[in-house]
Amino acid sequence: MQAIRIVDATLREGNQAPGVRFSVEQACHIATLLAAVGVDMIECGHARVSEQERLRIGAIRALGLPTPLLSHARAQREDIDAASASGAQWVGIFCGINRVSRLTRLGGRPAASVMEMVRRSVAYAKSLGLGVRYTVEDASRTPDELVIRVLRAAVEEGADRICYADTLGAMTPGVFGAKVAAIRAALPGTDLEVHIHDDRGFAMANAWAALEAGANWISTSVNGIGERCGITDLALLLANLDLEAKQPLRQAQALQHLSAYVAAATRSAPDHRRPVVGRNAFTHTARLHTQAMQRSGLSYAVFDAQRCGRVVQLAPPPAPRTIDAMVVAPQVISATELKYHRAGPGSRYVMVDDRFVDDARQYCIVRDIPPQHTPAAAHVDPHRHGCDSLFLFIGKEVGLTGLRVEVLLDGEVRELHSPASMLIPAGAEHSYRVLGGSGLYVNHVLAGDYNASLLETGDQTAAPETAIAAAGASSIALLRQFLADMTCVRTDSLCLDADLIEDGVIDSIGMLELFVFIEAHTRQALPDTGLDTQYLRTIRSIADRFLTGPPAHAPAR
After folding, report:
1. DSSP helix/strand/coil, 391
2. How far apart are the C-alpha atoms of 232 and 211, rounded to whole Å?
């Protein structure tokens, strides 16, 4: 494979997903995180679409990120002018040339006319000083000869990168790889990108086939969001590139936060089984599996959880669903147990959460508010959840009246009179306080652990890579000294298998090999001590703690 580059289209393709419209604030935060995880280009929108779109692109440009920005555009001057005015350094011109595209989108133009339109638009964009990517839309239904002709025409007019788009997600990996290989052979000196939809579930497989066939740019989105079934998933691609030693996965924590943030902003969380970012991706339940995972974090895992910014979860089998297990006697617990909360007026009853019902996946409290003659002190700071939640306000007077509150939702403040409710979409900043009267306040969150459901928007980037490398080198020196102390063997005489250590990291399989190494050398150094099982267990425990720190597995909450 050539050096691989990623253009992430979350803010353009993802913004076309059903029910999604990123705000300026959301777009800026997503762009910042995309830059942090190391994508090579950010496809930030289609500037010609609306004033809101131009505001979003302009705001992202004002961040001064080191990652270049690309604005989508039709093969029309107005679109290209809008892209240039937005501040994006690149324009992504798209235009299909097959019969369907010509009849349904281009007024029945003949192929020769479309070819000339592509030439003119690429040349015009270059005259404005823009980097140009030209995409053959719906390339998978376009004759191969016509695809190569129009791509060559774009390159002749100065296109810096060409893109083959499987707009329908129609192709299988073998066929897709062959198509990409033919383009690479015809245009060997030009950067080649692929944009792949997932309608048949082949987006990741087709992306990998394209890389093996000579493509060097892949179009992705966070959580794979996009039109219909979406496109290639950014996290999964990065994890696979890391696994195959093609490109190291950096800023894994930022990648996980990016997935959670986009899930909240779109109100569309990745399914629990999605690799790398799904809730169950690193969760093990079967008894044999959990026992093996406690010995080695790679026993039943292809991806290393820590390298992906996750921890291994060892989940017990679900408890029987008896009525006794489902019924909860509410407990009065102060709101101080929650982040961003202080003690509020009246008594707070915890009706249900994961502590009281195993795997409840729901949190609900009821606050019994006594009569308030003056506004109560604010006791809830603005915060966000990664899932939807709900406020209910119920007064104690006739018709559920008698309670006045003030609510905050994404910067807007309103006074509400009971009875009233407020839906809080995932990712929305919110709070409330009591102004007067008496009644019940109900808060229901679609998560069983309130604090774990909070969506933080602070800096999620990890330590600089140089610091990590230095720490790794230091760890190796400490490891050699530790083994020398344990085995009574001179440091320079230790013969460690080089495979145990890679870039300063010892993986779980390597740990098992180290245990064997320690036991064998300790027996050689102390042949007459009659080492017993307990002592060997102590050696294992010390080595485990010294080399790995806290275990990478934790009980499932």
Report:
1. strand
2. 13
- The kind and range of the H/E element at 389 are strand 389-395
Please confirm, yes or no, whether 385 is among the known catalytic residues.
no
Alpha-helical segments (H) within 73-196? 77-86, 99-104, 111-127, 144-156, 173-186
Q: Cα–Cα distance between 373 and 371 in angstroms, integer?
A: 6
Which tens digit of pLDDT belongs to each residue from 189-219?
999 999 999 999 999 999 999 999 999 999 9
The answer to whether 330 and 350 have CB atoms below 8 angstroms apart is yes
Spatial distance between the Cα atoms of 271 and 268, rounded to a whole number of angstroms = 9
- pLDDT for 320 equals 87
Token match 């080492």: residue?
Answer: 531
**Strand, helix or coil at 373?**
coil
CB 348 within 8 A of CB 341: no
Catalytic residue, chosen from 197, 272, 289, 341, is 289
74-218-504 Cα angle (round to 5): 150
For the entire predicted model, the pTM comes to 0.83
Residue 427, by phi and psi: left (phi above 0), alpha (psi -120 to 50) or beta? Answer: left
R_g over Cα of the chain: 29
